[in-house]
């Protein structure tokens, strides 16, 4: 478990077979997104993991910084050949994700267009 008791945010992580699950609680903002990223990245890079799931049932606020962390982890998961999903979203969190197009985001398309050596234009 990864958590900071003095923070309004906590992340609990667990592995179940080839699935890595991060359960988040509180506000994901500029002061807490580094904690979130650091807790989830090991699951993304673990060769025994093929699926990364983020449970946002208890996340009450998602800032642009939190959205950026989710996007970076999504791209890292894609790069490492893993599926990445968000589930149990609160309405206010879903609204932020929908506004920024995250719920319809295609990591592979962005990766190929911006990060992949074959997608870069010289």
Automatic annotation (TrEMBL):
Stored Gene3D superfamilies: STAS domain
Every STAS domain range: 26-102
InterPro entries: MlaB-like_STAS (IPR058548), STAS_dom (IPR002645), STAS_dom_sf (IPR036513)
Superkingdom of this protein's organism: Bacteria
Protein name: STAS domain-containing protein
Organism: Lentzea indica
């Amino acid at each position: 478990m990864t958590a900071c008791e003095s923070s309004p945010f906590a992340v609990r992580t667990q592995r179940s077979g080839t699935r890595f699950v991060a359960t988040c609680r509180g506000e994901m903002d500029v002061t807490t997104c580094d904690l979130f990223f650091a807790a989830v990245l090991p699951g993304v890079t673990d060769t025994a993991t093929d699926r990364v799931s983020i449970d946002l049932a208890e996340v009450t606020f998602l800032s642009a910084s939190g959205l950026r962390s989710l996007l970076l982890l999504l791209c890292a998961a894609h790069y490492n050949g893993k599926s990445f999903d968000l589930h149990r979203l609160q309405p206010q969190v879903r609204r932020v994700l929908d506004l920024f197009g995250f719920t319809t985001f295609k990591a592979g398309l962005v990766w190929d267009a911006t990060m992949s050596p074959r997608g870069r234009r010289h």
